[in-house]
Amino acid sequence: MPDTARDNPTVPNDLDSFWMPFTASEMFKDNPRLISKAEGVRYTSIDGHELFDGTGGLWCCNAGHNHPKITKAIQDQAARLDFVHNFNQGHPLAFEAAARVTALAPGFDHVFFTNSGSEAVDTALKIALAYHTARGDGDRRILVGREKAYHGINFGGLSVGGLGLNKGQFGTLYPSTAHMRHTWLEENHNSLGQPDHGADLANDLQRLCDLHGGQTIAAVIVEPVSGAGGVFPPPVGYLERLREICDTHGILLIFDEVITGFGRMGTPFAFEAFGVQPDLVTCAKGMTNATVPMGGVLATAAVRDAFRNGPAKMPDLFHGYTYSGHPLASAACIATLDAYRDEDIFGNAARMAKPWEDMLHALADLPVVQDVRNCGIIGAVQLHQDGAVGDAGRAAYNGLWEAGLIVRPVGDALCLSPPLTITQADIDEIGEKLRAQLTR
Questions:
Q1: Which one, 2, 240, 398, 417, has least CB within 10 Å?
Q2: What percent of the chain clears pLDDT 70, i.e. is strictly above it?
Q3: pTM
Q4: What φ, ψ does residue 74 adopt, rounded to 5°?
């Protein structure tokens, strides 16, 4: 691949007008990586370079790219009803999509639609605060997050998130936040799935209750499997202990399942895989196979019912988006859930979890590898730091791109989350490309 594609006639312009997200703009313009086509588990760049999509888009294309049934559903809906808002009116597909989503989530009866995972997180946090206010418990204002957590990039999600680089440019966010420690411990390196050590770290929540008073804490939010911060599965017993503390103090437990929702653990949602019932769940990404932006917050009947006691003429939640339950997104959601069901995609993820684990951990003995982490069809290969933090990760990412494999570098961790349609041959291909790069 040439050092620059600036002279390629398919590059649209000088690449300056689009302010790209999470991108070193000048570095990108020096060597732009532009994708022009996707099919199944593969991308094709503008110069014809074929790449295995080892990140499933960005943790989101669970059914693979350009699924024909999903594509057709979106096309048909655009020709029938392109848009109608859902403020005091609506359209049937939004209600059908909501029923289909909640049917996959035992214990949940309601979903509030958003347009992204970031919006879903801020919505869940606002619901948690409003829930306590509706119950006459409005002194609960503290929101608890965790180090190394990623909960999107809106103000609430940044406030409870635990990645310092994401916060540094923006000053004071939501002021009433507290954070638990992360669970990445040296004694857990190269654990298969859930690590054995660290359940006691959930007692950080109890210490916060002791410090601030449990009656002042509204909610705690965690990713069942921490994803964008570097892939950290929960220690055995950790989530269970959080649930116990929340029950003791009347705190809402929010699971951020924007990444783990819709099959990545081999179950519709990760809370089922871990056997821990939260009060609210955020989701997005795999909800529409990333074809049309959509997110949501799942709520139990107990949470929803707290909002039903106000005046009948007034909205019970003063919150929403122009595009909540968008017709195209609703059609994409329904078609995506059909594909998951009809093609047993969640079942495939469950069957491929062990081969996926075996492939990743076969890399653990390489000198450049510090740690390997996995859970479901998620994984990370942590490289030893070589130079500044992130240098080793970026170098490996660049080499793997040239070799035809896309990974997500997070610092010096190479994170992977391929489509849930992967086969043994796909896993073997990913493993071969990783090994070749890491032994260069």
A1: 2
A2: 98
A3: 0.96
A4: -65, -45
